[in-house]
Design goal:
Blueprint (H helix, E strand, L loop, with lengths): L2 E8 L1 H5 L3 H10 L3 E8 L3 H7 L9 H8 L4 E9 L1 H9 L12 H5 L8 E3 L3 H11 L8
Antiparallel strand pairs: 1-3, 1-4, 2-3
The protein binds adenosine-5'-triphosphate and magnesium ion.
């Protein structure tokens, strides 16, 4: 077991429906601690850079438009195996394939408007955390 940190984003479909609190409760009940959090509006530039790995995918432009369509809550989650733990509680990318009880099964609207983001590996977690937060904003 390893104490890890991962970058989580509550996406615009969720902020729009005022369900950030229930999502945070799901994360905390999964054993994850929110050690940094802020509500921001991503610029087009920020969203394009953040999702650069998907730049060649057919859904890229729609994804950037969606992620900049409203407020997001960016947060750092800390816990034992936090990266895997968070992806478990998030559920599959497409809510139709997500397990019962997961955030995406409960709240996602579609494969695009799927309520939450979570880093997928140690290296991407470190890069994504540094993209949004300085050390002074993180308090375990
Ligand atoms: P995230 O990176 O947001 O945590 P993920 O790792 O489950 O999600 P990725 O494959 O990294 O999924 O896709 C990033 C995001 O792009 C998805 O969360 C979703 O919002 C959007 N997306 C992925 N696949 C599609 C698709 N086929 N059509 C539309 N949007 C998609
Ligand atoms: Mg991903």
């Amino acid at each position: 077991m390893a104490l890890e940190r991962t970058l989580s984003i509550i996406k615009p479909d969720a902020t729009r429906r005022n369900i950030t609190g229930v999502i945070n409760t799901k994360l905390e009940e999964a054993g994850l601690r929110i050690v940094a959090q802020k509500r921001i509006r991503m610029s087009r530039q920020m969203a394009e850079t953040f999702y650069d790995v998907h730049r060649e995918r057919p859904f890229f432009n729609n994804l950037v438009a969606f992620m900049t369509s409203g407020a997001v809550v960016v947060q750092i989650l800390e816990g034992e195996n936090a990266i895997t733990r968070n992806r478990e509680v998030m559920g599959a990318t497409n809510p139709e394939n997500a397990d019962e009880g997961t955030i995406r099964k409960l709240y996602a609207e579609s494969i695009e408007s799927n309520s939450v983001h979570g880093s997928d590996a140690l290296d991407t977690a470190a890069t994504e955390i540094a993209y949004f937060f300085s050390d002074a904003e993180i308090h375990a």
